[in-house]
């Protein structure tokens, strides 16, 4: 009989701990969930299914290219799972992941993101990479939520996961949330560096992040990777601001 691996046992232990620390009320509707099994801890499956999906394909790329000059745009394909606006509730999940210490929720969300059609069509050699955050911000949160999303995607799809540290965020940049388009771009210029280019040379990399706004951060990270020799850079985010 095949015994469960240690990582599976630890993941289950974290889920149980989540249920103890965070009562089983839906983050989206506040309805009590009880012991019901759900795709995401503390999120009702029907409420999640009711959230509006993000634009797909060229429609999403058109949104991005409004903010990034075509000559500087280096992302090959960009995907997102849900649309975030004033009427959406999925941002409650993102908030819990980024500011509520819900590390296990981040990994579970990555597993759900793997259901996106674009993730089903990835070339076998594609590898996931969480967009890096500055070490100071990582110390504040205790983890990089983008890396945990990438980990969930990797676990669900079987594609490789690129280690943290392969790309380094060398500047402590202010959060993008309150910045306008021009300041977002300036905020991330030269923010990323690849210390050992051999680790990415020739690779097909899929960047992973929580929220896509103008695409400035993703494109800046893709620029560093392409300049270091990566063959192709795609991106997927949990949400896109619409």
Describe this structure in words.
The chain is an alpha/beta fold and 242 residues long. The chain is built from ten helices and seven strands. A five-stranded parallel β-sheet has the order 1-7-6-2-3. Strands 4-5 form a two-stranded antiparallel ribbon. Helix 5 packs across helix 8.
Could you name the key traits of this structure?
single chain; 242 residues; alpha/beta; two-stranded antiparallel sheet; globular
Strand arrangement within the widest β-sheet reads: 1-7-6-2-3
Largest sheet: 5 strands, parallel
Mean pLDDT: 88
Could you say which structural class the secondary elements and strand pairing correspond to?
alpha/beta
Choose one word for the global shape.
globular
Total beta strands: 7
Provide a short characterization of the protein structure.
The chain contains ten helices and seven strands.
List the helices and strands and how they pair.
Elements: H1 6-21, H2 45-50, H3 58-65, E1 78-84, H4 91-99, H5 103-113, H6 117-120, E2 127-130, H7 135-141, H8 145-157, E3 160-161, E4 168-169, H9 181-188, E5 192-193, E6 204-212, H10 216-227, E7 232-241
Parallel strand pairs: 1-7, 2-3, 2-6, 6-7
Antiparallel strand pairs: 4-5
